[in-house]
Every structure is written in C-alpha cells, then in structure tokens.
Design goal:
The model is unreliable at 357-363 (pLDDT under 50). The chain starts with a helix and ends in a 32-residue tail after the last helix. The chain has 13 helices and no strands. The protein is 66% helix and 0% strand. It has 2 domains: 2-142, no CATH class; 151-331, no CATH class.
C-alpha cells in the first residue's frame, strides 16, 4: 500500500506541475483542461445566479464580470490543494505516519508555515520540495497577471477607440456609414492596419492564455469579438460593393481576423472548416445584407456593383469567419450586437447607439 500511495502522490504532483506549466509558462496555445472546466462550471453558476433577477443581458453582464477573477482564484486554489494532497500521499507512503500527521506536515511545508517538521531525512527532502512548490506556484501566477492585463489593455484601447466610428455595440455597416457621413473614409486604411495588428495580437494572446476570453470590457456594450467582427464585416462589405476603391488593407484585416479566430478555436477545440467553399450558406440573410447596403449607400458611399451581384462576394468572405465569430461571441457572453449571432441567455439584437443631434436649430 505504501508503494501505491507513493505512486499516486507522484502522479498527482506530475499532473499538477504539467497543468501549471501548460497554463502559465508554455507559450504554445495548449489546451488547458483546468481552465476550460473552471470556465464552464463558474460560467454556469453565475448564469444561474443571474436568472432570478431577470436573466437579461445587463444582469447577465454584471454577473459574468466576476468570471475572470474567480477563474484565476480557483486555478491557484486547485493547484495548491492538489499539491497538498500529493505531498500528503508521499509523506504517508514514505514514512508510515498517520494521515493526520502527514497532512499537517505537508500543509506546514507547502504553505511555509513551519509549525510542523520531522527529523527523518527523507521527510525533510519532501518538506523542502513542498516548501518550494507553494511559493513558486504563487509567484508564477503573480508573474502571469501582468501578461494578462497587458494583453487586455491593448485589446480594450482599440475596442474603445472603435466606439466613435462603429457605434456601441459595434456594427460593420455602421462603421462604413459613419465614415461616409463625416467624410473620413480616407482613415479606413489606417483603421484596417491597426486592427490587422490587433487581430494578430489577440490570436496570439488569447490562444496562449485562454482565460483572457473571460475578461470583459469595462463598458457592457463593448466586446472584442463584436468589435473585430464589425471591422471584418465593414471590410467585406467594402470589398464586395466597391472592389476598385476598397483599400488593400481590407483584405489583410479579413485574413488576419479569421486567422486569429482559428488560432483561438484550435486552443478551445472548436471544430471549423479550414477551407470553406465560397458558396457555402451563411446565417446572415440576403435581406439583412440588402438593408445594410442601402443604409451605407444612403450615407454617401458610391456603390459599384448591384447588391445582388455584391452578395456572393460578401458571402465568400464571411463564410471564413461567421461561424467562429458567432461561437466565440456565444462563449464569451458578448453583447448581443447586430450580426453577431445568438446567445445562451434571453436577448434581442442591440443596434448601435447613435449620439443625439444637439446642434442649435435654425430660427
């Protein structure tokens, strides 16, 4: 039985160390079972807590704000408890001490309390290992936080800057319409360049550190998935209705956007078609596209193609990212913006908020 306890303790310790390394250290976008399970469990619990208060988006958003910090705390507690259990098994198996004494000594060493010790050399070796494991795990998590918040800050700065251009919540046709109305269409190439770089940053950061998916924007009607989808939709509309005047940056931001989504999907083990046919059906309807194009052209954009001819081109672009964008928006409980798919809570699409015209009326 002592050998079984030792092997069980070693196995638990190795699994715990591997979980810590793949979550906090290895920059490879590895699937973290712990993060995913905690995300599913805590997200479901917060959803149930919000249900008695109406279950609408605002209530749901306030509840899900606590998801990211709870995941981080539960990650640390899970690792420490697993190590405590592992060292208890090792101490009991190597010394034959009673379970209570083994647990007491493992906890004293792991948490560097120092109130329990043993004179045996083999127990002292385990004590030293346990004493190093606890602070090292906490230090790794502390060092992990600046990386998370650095990526979060870069993401949210661009999402906030997009609010004045694409509305809140962001919507692709709104982005094109506003640029036409205020005659700032020449700023679109730079916007696409900025979001091409941000898409690459999001794809790298969120696939390596999937807990970032749980960090919500400071404002309830902002979300990175919705914002990226809006920029990509704007680029796809521009390429489909104005092929000769659309900037080349529009193609680049589309490719960077769906590449980032695919990188995140691989980490989360979301199935997707890596090479969909251009005529594959999408969930957005032609009627919705037609209404959006009418709004964009009414704002001053010159259309080079009839809407019916532009539709296959737009669909050929959107088929590369629509399903993934909808799934990421659903999983991150994003604001239910236009053209962003369904949610797991009762909701209706929220159109972008437009500022009231407060200019003085002519007498």
């Amino acid at each position: 039985m002592s050998l079984i306890y030792i092997l069980a303790g070693l196995l638990i310790l190795l699994i715990t160390v591997a979980s810590i390394l793949r979550t906090l250290v290895v920059p490879r976008g590895l699937y973290s079972v712990l993060v995913y399970r905690l995300w599913a469990l805590l997200r479901g619990a917060l959803k149930r807590l919000a249900a008695p208060f109406g279950g609408g988006y605002r209530v749901h958003d306030r509840a899900q704000t606590w998801l990211a910090p709870l995941i981080l705390l539960c990650m640390l507690n899970t690792w420490l408890v697993s190590m405590l259990f592992a060292y208890t098994l090792l101490l009991h198996g190597t010394s034959g001490l009673p379970w209570g004494v083994s647990f007491r000594e493992a906890g004293s060493s792991l948490f560097t309390l120092g109130f329990a010790s043993s004179n045996r050399l083999r127990l002292s070796t385990l004590d030293f290992l346990a004493a190093a494991s606890g602070p090292l795990t906490i230090a790794l998590l502390i060092g992990y936080l600046p990386t998370l918040y650095g990526a979060y800050n870069r993401r949210e700065v661009e999402v906030t800057l997009l609010e004045s251009r694409a509305g809140e919540p962001a919507w692709g046709p709104e982005l094109l319409a506003r640029q036409s109305l205020v005659d700032t269409e020449t700023a679109l190439p730079q916007l696409y360049r900025d979001w091409e770089r941000l898409a690459a940053d999001i794809g790298e950061g969120h696939s390596n550190y999937p807990v970032l998916l749980s960090f919500r924007s400071p404002q309830p009607n902002r979300n990175w998935v919705v914002a990226l989808l809006a920029v990509m939709d704007a680029a796809a509309i521009q390429l489909s209705i104005c092929p000769s005047t659309a900037p080349p940056e529009a193609r680049l931001v589309l490719r960077a956007g769906f590449t980032a989504m695919r990188d995140i999907a691989r980490t989360l083990r979301i199935d997707f078609d890596p090479d969909p046919e251009p005529d594959t059906p999408i969930r957005l309807t032609f009627e919705e596209f037609d209404a959006a194009v009418a709004m964009v052209t009414a704002s001053g954009t010159v259309k080079e193609r009839p809407t019916a001819d532009a539709w296959p081109h737009f669909r050929g672009w959107r088929v590369n990212y629509e399903a993934l964008a909808y799934e990421l928006a659903r999983r991150s409980d994003a604001v239910p913006a236009l053209w962003s798919g369904p949610r797991d809570f009762p909701s209706s699409p929220i159109p972008p908020r437009r500022p009231a015209d407060r200019r003085p009326k002519p007498s």
